[in-house]
Specification:
The chain is α/β, with parallel strands linked by helices and 283 residues long. Helix 6 runs parallel beside helix 7.
């Protein structure tokens, strides 16, 4: 298989803390340094959250702007993907940073259960977030926590709410949501081929399932997400020393399955993204 594999690194998220793993990057400086190391290891997408002065997740556009500025300086070719997830704000606050015109942003297109709460993504908010992404030229990454979310992505792509070819990430292993199940994974892949045959897909496994889902994805011709947001351990007994170390595991899988690791230029071409943006749109 000669199709390049795009590696996305989810560097910090909104849940893991220093107490979970000292390698989790929290400050701007730590996030930029960790992302640069992951980029050098082979990651070409950075999935990013930001934290406030109390290290709590926030959707503050000013903080996102500061992070983007640092990433574009130190990883100038990397694809920047900002999170619009529900842990960082409520309602339209979740999309307040889209005017910064990142390359990509996450888009959850339906609700589902999380470990201790409902992850609410009502239709009117989904439509508003999608319209803001269209307005600012941001490519959505559809986060599929359920089979219905793939169907929703296909519907939104068909009617123009998602422009170009859709990009869908299968999220597996979140407690109370879709478990890590190989037959389900295979059906997801088949469903993508049937409903969105020209689109690319990615998969993420949460916690102990990260490497398993990475391998399934690489072997099946998809792309892979890794990083300390989703998993802070190499194995049951060993903390991951860095985001770069988790990226390296995916690179090793690419070698195993004869998949070249996508360069930034190849990743942008596969996703239909323009080459790296030189400026920052200030809010």
């Amino acid at each position: 298989m000669t199709k390049p594999c795009i590696i996305c690194v989810a560097i910090t998220g909104s849940i893991p803390k220093k107490a979970d793993n000292p390698a989790v990057p929290i400050t701007f400086e730590e996030q930029i340094e960790s992302t640069h190391a992951a980029f050098e290891a082979g990651a070409t997408i950075c999935h990013a959250h930001v934290r406030d002065e109390n290290q709590e997740p926030t959707s503050d556009p000013v903080r996102f702007a500061r992070l983007i500025e640092g990433l574009r300086k130190h990883c100038p070719d990397m694809i920047i993907q900002l999170s619009t997830g529900g842990r960082t704000g409520a309602g339209k606050m979740r999309g307040g940073m889209l005017s910064l015109r990142p390359d990509m942003a996450s888009l959850a297109v339906g609700s589902n259960n999380f470990p201790t709460r409902v992850y609410e993504n009502p239709p009117d908010l989904v439509d508003w977030l999608a319209s803001e992404m269209l307005k600012y030229g941001v490519m959505p990454e559809v986060e599929a926590f359920d089979l219905s979310h793939i169907f929703k992505a296909a519907e939104m792509n068909s009617d123009g709410r998602i422009a170009g070819n859709a990009y869908v990430q299968f999220v597996m292993g979140v407690k109370n949501a879709m478990p890590v199940d190989r037959r389900v994974f295979d059906f997801y892949v088949e469903t993508m081929g049937r409903l969105l045959p020209k689109s690319q897909w990615c998969a993420a496994g949460i916690g102990q399932h990260q490497l398993t889902v990475n391998e399934w994805s690489v072997a099946a011709g998809g792309h892979a997400r890794t990083g300390l947001e989703d998993n802070v351990r190499l194995d049951k007994h060993t903390l991951a020393p860095s985001n770069a170390a988790l990226v390296q595991r995916v690179v090793d899988l690419c070698d195993k399955y004869n998949r070249p690791v996508a360069t930034a230029t190849e990743a942008r071409s596969l996703l239909g993204l323009a080459q790296a943006k030189s400026g920052l749109h200030r809010i």
